[in-house]
Each structure stands twice: as structure tokens, then as C-alpha cells.
Specification:
Four copies of one chain form a homotetramer.
Chain A (H helix, E strand, L loop, with lengths): L1 E5 L3 H12 L3 E5 L3 H8 L4 E2 L3 H5 L4 E4 L4 H9 L4 H4 L5 E4 L5 H13 L3 E4 L2 E2 L2 H5 L3 E6 L2 H14 E8 L2 H31 L4 H12 L2 H12 L9 H17 L5 H15 L11 H7 L9
Parallel strand pairs in A: 1-2, 1-4, 2-3, 4-5, 5-6, 8-9
Antiparallel strand pairs in A: 7-8
Helix pairs in contact in A: 6-9, 9-11, 9-12, 9-13, 9-14, 10-11, 12-13
Chain lengths: 297, 297, 297, 297
Amino acid sequence: MQLAFLGLGNMGSAMARNLLRAGHHVTVYNRSLHKAEALREQGARLAASAAEACRGAEAAVSMLADDHAASATALGDDGIAAGLPAGAIHISSSSISTACSRELAAAHRAKGQHYLAAPVFGRPDAAEAAKLLVVAAGAPELIERCRPVFEAIGRQTIVAGDQPWQANTVKACGNFMLASMLETFGEAYATVRKAGIPPQVFLDAMSATFGSPVYDGYGRAIAEGKFEPAGFALKLGAKDVRLALAAAEECGSPMPIASLLRDQFLSALAHGQGDMDWSSVALVAARAAGLPDSKPA
Amino acid sequence: MQLAFLGLGNMGSAMARNLLRAGHHVTVYNRSLHKAEALREQGARLAASAAEACRGAEAAVSMLADDHAASATALGDDGIAAGLPAGAIHISSSSISTACSRELAAAHRAKGQHYLAAPVFGRPDAAEAAKLLVVAAGAPELIERCRPVFEAIGRQTIVAGDQPWQANTVKACGNFMLASMLETFGEAYATVRKAGIPPQVFLDAMSATFGSPVYDGYGRAIAEGKFEPAGFALKLGAKDVRLALAAAEECGSPMPIASLLRDQFLSALAHGQGDMDWSSVALVAARAAGLPDSKPA
Amino acid sequence: MQLAFLGLGNMGSAMARNLLRAGHHVTVYNRSLHKAEALREQGARLAASAAEACRGAEAAVSMLADDHAASATALGDDGIAAGLPAGAIHISSSSISTACSRELAAAHRAKGQHYLAAPVFGRPDAAEAAKLLVVAAGAPELIERCRPVFEAIGRQTIVAGDQPWQANTVKACGNFMLASMLETFGEAYATVRKAGIPPQVFLDAMSATFGSPVYDGYGRAIAEGKFEPAGFALKLGAKDVRLALAAAEECGSPMPIASLLRDQFLSALAHGQGDMDWSSVALVAARAAGLPDSKPA
Amino acid sequence: MQLAFLGLGNMGSAMARNLLRAGHHVTVYNRSLHKAEALREQGARLAASAAEACRGAEAAVSMLADDHAASATALGDDGIAAGLPAGAIHISSSSISTACSRELAAAHRAKGQHYLAAPVFGRPDAAEAAKLLVVAAGAPELIERCRPVFEAIGRQTIVAGDQPWQANTVKACGNFMLASMLETFGEAYATVRKAGIPPQVFLDAMSATFGSPVYDGYGRAIAEGKFEPAGFALKLGAKDVRLALAAAEECGSPMPIASLLRDQFLSALAHGQGDMDWSSVALVAARAAGLPDSKPA
């Protein structure tokens, strides 16, 4: 397919690379040129703006940091909507709010373009290995048309519904589940440490109980107090908790653990942890228990 | 080994059976004779009291419902401590409070007997398959002596420390992690359902994300609203959350998610869910969102 | 003074009336003409738009429902900023977000106009009696210039700072204190009722303990289950809790009780209580305890 | 009346003094003799044990720190039940659990004695001025018989029900209301301070809004960071929150703010604030917001 790709962070670069590997023609645009250059060597064409990248494309894939960046890239003067042909599709993989997703859908509709939300689960290494989980929502025929894109970047595609924002709800709730797991580890480790039990003992018990690589990985990071470099920055995690709360508020569903997470992430930010890995939210529970901030023994 | 086994519920019966299979000599006692009879066919001797079962034993394994039952069985007139020889070991596998565990340890010490806490993780099917996770704590040489017991009932033994109550802390915190997962599923499903998304979609996303049989199993039960028959009764789950809070209070560690769980379990009990599976705590979040109690579509 | 007054709800009408009583010249504008007519009899002039009301005014007082209404009335084509003379002051008494307050301040500054935030505490009867508490913030000399306005509507003026949004923060936090009191009553009454104690007994104890007319009034309403007609609608209360959370998030301050309130208000909304008095948030705690929704005996 | 008085802390001493002033004959007992001596000068007789103090008394009033002290003083070998004549009444004014209250009631019943719970609201200065609020529960005829006692120590008596433990429920829920107010102040002040607003401004607004001496007093203490000497020690406040949670759990009523308070008090204890005034729980919210522990400016 003729594709545009917008947003070349760690996740986006890996996704664009896999689209190239799968034989798609990809024109990329990124605000800082540096990252785009790297992709040129792998066969990408470079564009000077999002609009230019989208000219002639069948679909444009965007992977941006937040609502602000997603809106600016899609709706700005040199944005996706300004370049994408009528009938072409904007596949938004960014983790954005349901409100922003609806706004983008309406803007593209007004121009005779199509819009799908297709946020992904997985960290940069999964993106690199084309093993992301893609959660797509929008008109069924559009989703079918975009299957080659989803298959090039992920191992599985789940269809959430025919309204694009529904995929954003699933993504927000999924990240809520991950963030909750981090906080539960934080609370349990604080208790275990104050009881004089090595965190590793508790980690072994949880690895055996849950049998989940996600519990293993985050459980180990928290047990060892290893929060840098960040795989996923705490400030982005705080944003995702906000997205879950916003989605829940919209549809009238209280989420008390999400509310609690919001406060723990806020406290973490107030203690300067914004650029640490989001698993460092565990430090908030440790601090409340009077434990020193330093690594556990 | 010459063993006594006290408490033949679903878990205890399976554990006793595996001790027999491993070639140990096991004398069992249970308040209701019925369950003991079943084990006789598999080679167990029957005793008329806990004390009688313990006479001549090298170790007595107990698996009882709560602090009250554990204390009564250990310290009553016809209890474990009244029958166990000096130098023999009481291995308490019950999920009891750290306070109760310390009380039992002291009582046995006063009689020249030994005490280990060795609570287990796993549901009845894991117990039947000798695949429990055993978390043991107490004097290292006692733990070594009891290895053959642990190996007969479990797939892995983790040593939590040299104070028996430390194993109870690990068990309480582990069950807190499981209960937290149930509540997070409940909150996320409530939001997802109110957003018109089939719960199965969210379940698929979480299965792919966590890669954990525990998430798969409970996630499915909650998505399908299938809470009976109970694998683990909600009223026992409520007790375990209390144990976690008590352990945390003892060592001065706030656990805000555990506090929240306490309230959700209380609300579930107030709505008559005590004998449903503990995963039905998810109904509390659904109710708060104004969703009907019936199964999701 | 020559004044404009925008927004003639229950609160605004009473405030405008008191400005007239104090001898000010007041031109009013309200979206629905009906309420403006009532004020004409008391000496107000009527304008056909906010802009028209503001022409020639020394100050414009606005009292609107939320951010949306406040922005539209201030910044729309026929809005306050379009009519207010350079050097004149917009006194915003609406309960709006700090973000909206900053936006209004910037818009007026760009036009050479001034902006003060002066939200008020008090219910409609206090507004009628000119006994509001005014919390003002902005440039000190502007506050001095507006003293006659504040004195005509309130019994006391508190200066929060020289940044207008600071007054909005105080207002949001104050409403948070009130909402918290409602929820604590709800939880305590639920327990007291389930213990078979008449709510009136608890109310008497709290009246004697706090010696506060606010506790007396709300405590009685909740004890009697009298939530209609609404003095202050629950949906507005939900908005105010959001404002507090937004203000807190902005300055990096976790507010766990505010987060909890958010969820309780969301649950109340999901149960159709949006137009009831905000004290009906107490029904959420009663419901969680399995109590019937009907009035307590 | 012929009275015994047990427990001469700050509260108890003042109450005993007022009973003497009202013309009652009072025999006192306190574990440390020192405080009893002070009362001798005011007309009290001294006894060498609780039992001795109760011999020949029509009623015994006890005012003790917690369940443990209350049980020991009532049921020990030289305790109240051992000395009180059949038909006489034990009036327990201690803040104890409903469970302990039921245990004391049963023990006295078994000896042909009577039992009333009559916990009080008010700080030591109110006790000194005979202005306590008495919440009494038990058999109506017993309450009538004890009116002269209640009138000597308090300004008002509220009857909670005919089961003594009901008065303890009211007391626990009342202290929950007070503790909640402290936490809400803590959260609001943290936000206000981070917004650069003097705490005094917020205090003024709350004084004007609530019109409550309790808000004034605690609001000022927290604004000024003045937590010592303790009027009511935080560790006792933590106990009272536990009592409320226990009472709520007993009757199946979730109290999410009480759960949250439990965690905040635990964090305060973990930071060494047990002997500070309980209003210092506000430091927990300040700390979570990254504010320094020192006094606000």
C-alpha cells in the first residue's frame, strides 16, 4: 500500500520499519528530521510536512504522544487532513482521549476522508518485533482494507466496535489495568519490606502465581528499584490514567482504583519522577510507609 | 514420614491425598467424619481428635478456614499441641493472621514443639495435581526437615524468612494482588460495557497483554457473569483482604488499594454475595455504574 | 457605579438586585428574557446582548453556570469583551476552572480591559440577604476599585492573591470541603442506620459537636432523605469536584478525598440524581451498604 | 449518689471533679496514684483497686484509654465487676469498640449488675466546664437512674438506643466525622499552598462558610502547623478510625472515607507523629504533594 507515517518516536520508528519490511511504500514525516533520516536508509521517503507525506497515500498511520500532538499533526495547516486524498484513511495509533478521537473523526469526515482508531499494546521491543496487539475500531470495511497494515506491525488485531473512540476506551482501560498492577506491587512490596522479607521472595511467589511475563518484568524492576532508563515515562502513564478517568466519566462509570492511581501518579510527579519509568509509582507507597527512597536491599 | 493431617476441606483433602501418594504415613482428623472416610480408602488412618492424630507424628499439617478454626484445632483440649510429641513440628498451611501465627508459635514453643507456617497458593485443582506454591517460614533446619512434605504437595517452595508469621504476610499480600486484579477487571468491564464494547473484546486484549492464565480465567468468569459455583467464596476473600490490612497495619504500611477492596467486599457481602465466587466483587463496580446485576450480554 | 450584570439565575438575580438596592446603575443581560424582565421592575435597564450591557460600564459582573457559559458570554461576538470599554473591569463571580479564568484574564488584557475573579460562597438565600462571602483575586488596585460592588452583595470580602485564578482555587477547594462533609454524613448515616440507631440521634450529636448551621442544615436534609427541590443541583456539585481536582492537578497536589467524591458523584449521576440536591450524594453510600433508596424511617 | 470513678486521665479527672462539685460521693481509683491524690483535695475518697472503689456504689463511671484498659479494669481480679453490688450500674464512658462493649455488658449481666455505655464528645476543656455531650445507650430505666451523673458532667444527653453498643457506634462515627474534617483541611491546604495562596485566606473562607468553632480551631492549628502539645494524640485518633471501621464492618456498611483515613493515619504513625495532635494527619497530604514538613509560611 501507499502509506504515510507520522510520528517517529521509539514506537513509531519501529512500526514504520515493519511496514517497510512488509513491502509497503512509506513516506514519513517527523518534527525532528534526525529520526526520519534513519528510516530513509531502510527505504522510506521523507516529506517536509505531514500534509506532503499524505499526498497520494491510501492510508496515513499516526503515532503521537498525546491529544495536543495528535490534533496539531492531523488538523494543522500542513496536517494530515490537508494532504490526504478523499476516500483515504487516517489510522490513528496514538493513545489519545475518546474526545480527541471523535474530533479527528469529524474533521476527516468533513473532508471526505476516513478515520480509524487503532491504538496498540506493547513496549518498544514488541513494536520492533512486529508483535504489537492492535485494537482497531471504525467502519468494518475500512478495518478490512487496513488489515495489511495491522498485520505488518502486530501479532493480533482485535476489533473493538464500529465507533473509532471505542478502541481508545479499550486502550485506556488496558493501560489502567497495567498501572493498577504497578501500584499493587508497590503496596505489597512496602508491606513485605517493612516485615523484613526480601522483595525477591514476594516476586517469586507472584511469578509462580500469575505466570505472566508482565508481572515478572515489572515485579523485578520494582523489587530492584531500577526505574531508569524509562521504558515508558511516568508522565505518560499519568496521562493514560487521566484518559481512563475521562473515558469512564463520559460513560458514567466510577473507577475508584483509577482515581487512586491518579493521586499516586500526581504524588510521584510532585516528587520529580516524571521521566522515570512509570513503575516508579511504587515509590509513592514506599514513601507513605516511611521507607527510604533508595533501592530496597 | 509419620504425619498427621488436620482439616479436610477441598484443599486439605487433596493435599493429604498427595502426601499418601508420596508414601508418607498419614493419620487424618476432620470435624465432620464424612470427608475423613473418603481418605481412608486411599490409605489414611483415621483419628477421633486432632490430639490423637498427632500422637507419635513427626509432623502435623493443618489446613483450616480461619484464625478461629486454626486456634481451636491447635490449642483446644484435644488439639494438636495436646498430642504432638516434643520436638515434632506443626506445619500450619492455613491462611491465618500474622497475630494468630505468632500465638500458635508461642504455644508450641512452650510445649517443646516446633512450628512452621507454610501457607500455599493455588486453587483446588492445583492442590489435586500437587502443583501448589508453598511459602514456608521458620527455622531453616525445620524447613529442611519438612522438604519431603512440601515436595509432595507442591511444585515449588519459597522460603520467606525465619519467622513463621512472615510466610503469612507473603500469603496475605499475594491474595491482595489477586483480589486487586478482580476489582480492576470489574472497573474496566463496567466502563467498557457502558461504552457499548463487548466484554470479550477487552478480555482478548488483556489475555494478549498479560499472557497470564490467572487473568484469562478470572477475566472470562467476570465477562460471562459466571460466579457460581464458587471456586473460592467471596466471604473468604473478604477475610483475606482483612488479613492483608492487619499485616500492613502491624508493620506500619498503608495499602490504599487494600482499603478500597475491603469496602468493595463489604458492599458485596451487604448484597448477599458471600457464597458466590470472590470474582463477583466485580458486580460492585457494575452496580455503582448503574448497570443491571444480570449477566452482561 | 455604572455596572453591567450578566447571568440572572437564582444567584445572579439576587446579586443584581442588591447592586440596585445599593444605588448602582445596573444594565442586565440574560439569555432568557423572562428573568431580566423581573429585574426591570427593580430599576435595571435591559440590554439585548452582553456586549450592549457592557457599553459604557465601569465594571461588568458575570455569574454563569460553568466554563462553557462563562467563555461564551465573555468572548463571543456579542460578548463582554466586545462591549466593555478599555480600562473597565470584568468581575467574574462564576465558579469556573482556573484554566478558564486565566483564559479570560488574557483575553481582556489583550483588549486593554481588566479582569478580577470574585467567586462567592453562599446559597440563594444568602445572596438575597446580601450575605455572600466574596473571595476576590487580582491586582490590588482593581480590588479596591470594586469594593463597592463586593460590599453590596456580601457580608465579607477575602482577598486570595494577585492572580485572579487563585480565587477560583479557593472557591473550588471550599466546595470540596462542603462536598466532603456531605459524603461523610452519608457514610456515617449508613452505618448508624444499619446499627438500628435513628439518624436523628446522630444528627443531634453532630449538631452539638460542630455547632455549625451548615452541618445542621445538610445533616437534617440527609437524615430526612429530603433532596428535592434542589438548593444546589448534584450535577453542579459534580462539576465543582472536577474543578477542585483540576486545580489540584495543575499545582501537583493529590487530593484523595476529592478523587473519592468524584466517583461517588459519578455513581449518583449514573443513578439519575443529577437534578436532585447535591446532598443526595449520601444515597450512594446507603446503596453500597444495601440500604433501600427510600427515605430512612 | 454513691459513685466510683475509674480512670483519671485529663478527661476522667475533670469529669470526676464535676461529679464531686455536683454533690455526689465519689471514690476514685487510678493506676498511678498521683492523679488520684489531686482529687482527694476536692473531696474524693481514694481506693486501692477498682473493686474496692466500687464496693457499696450505686454506679461506677469508667473513662479509660482503649479496649484493653477497659476490659482489664472491668473484668480483672480486682476489677469493677468484682466489687460492684448486684443491681448497681457500670457506666462506661470510654471510647471502646462495640465488641468490647458487648463483652462488658454480658460480664456484668452474669453477675446481676447493669451496664450502660455513655461515651462523651468534647475535649478536656469542655470536660472541665461540665459541657460534654453525653451519648448514652442501654435500658431506658437505667438511663433515667443515671441522669444526675450525666447532668453533672455534660450539657446535653442524647439517647442512642437500648443496646449499649449503639452509643459506641455513634461515638465512633462522630469521631470519624471529626477525623474526616482534619483530612479535608489537609488536602485543601496542600493545594492552596502549592497555588501560592496563604493558608489563612482559606481558613477565613472556611470560618465564614461553616460558622463552626471546630473548623475554626482545627483549621487554625493546621494552617499554623501547630501540632504540639497534643489536645488529642494522633495514635488515639488512629484507634478511633479503627473503631469506626470495625463498627461499620460489623453491620455491613462500607465507609470509603474512613478507609482512606486509616491509611493516612498509618502513614502519619510511620512518620513518627503518634504523639502529635491528631490534626497533624494533615501533614500526610502535604508530604504527598511534595511540600516540606516544616510549618507553612
